[in-house]
Amino acid sequence: MxxxxxxxxxxxxxxxxxxxxxxxxxxxxxxxAVVDVNLENAEQTAKEARTMGRKAxxxxxxxxxxxxxxxxxxxxxxxxxxIHILVNNAGITKDGLILRMTEDDWDRVIDVNLKGxxxxxxxxxxxxxxxxxxxxVNIASVVGVMGNAGQANYAASKAGLIGLTKSIAREFAGRNxxxxxxxxxxxxxxxxxxxxxxxxxxxxxxxPLGRFGGPNDVAMGVLFLASNASSYITGQVLNINxxxxx
Length: 246
Ligand SMILES: NC(=O)c1ccc[n+]([C@@H]2O[C@H](COP(=O)([O-])OP(=O)(O)OC[C@H]3O[C@@H](n4cnc5c(N)ncnc54)[C@H](O)[C@@H]3O)[C@@H](O)[C@H]2O)c1
Prior knowledge:
The chain is α/β, with parallel strands linked by helices and 246 residues long. The chain has one domain (7-240): NAD(P)-binding Rossmann-like Domain (Rossmann fold, 3-Layer(aba) Sandwich). Helices cover 48% and strands 15% of the residues. Strand 2 (31-36), helix 2 and strand 3 form a beta-alpha-beta unit. Helix 4 (103-131) runs parallel beside helix 6 (152-172). The longest helix has 29 residues, at 103-131. The mean pLDDT is 97.
């Protein structure tokens, strides 16, 4: 799963799962473009990748804005001299039962989680096609497979991401570009820290492996799907959830 000579762009890589993915890909040899709305955090991740001897570029981008993602793709291709791997990881939640969910809460979650992946994928594909080798990994969620009360917007965005994954996989298979999704279960990050102890206790009972995941559990799955080791796998959803859904 060596990635020397590969260039990877990871969105939402300023913290949490995205940061773990970026640093794991860097530790296996990839140069990285660290993209986030929070530039300070993105710069910190890039700094850590540079200490491993990698080239790393930090960029402030809102993935829901196509113009910004187009500029991002052009800049990364020019400055890192290529682009082989895209990880669409940036994501947000705005939870609420559907009768109380506002139109803004619906729109913003779809805009970042689903349209953001469309924007980044569309923006990088013309450059990735030139490389004659590509890997796209979309970070979905167990909730996109199961649904979840109180997360209609989030679940719809993640289920949409799975449909996007399979369509891109079919469109670009002929160019030696694979596209897969990873569906994490409950992973300990800032996003899940917000849940109450009672919800966490109930969730734990549904996980056969008896623990919550860490960002590195997801990062290792992404590494596999971003490497040569997965060259015959496309259009799939890899569940990383401790057995929560089988
Ligand atoms: N934590 C979990 O249990 C879990 C489970 C399943 C899926 N996921 C998914 O994994 C991904 C990462 O989640 P996390 O737990 O690390 O969350 P996090 O909130 O810790 O990190 C998300 C990152 O995305 C960035 N971001 C937010 N909006 C953005 C935008 N418009 N443009 C660019 N960057 C933006 C944030 O600044 C932040 O750095 C998300 O897509 C999330 O839905 C998380």
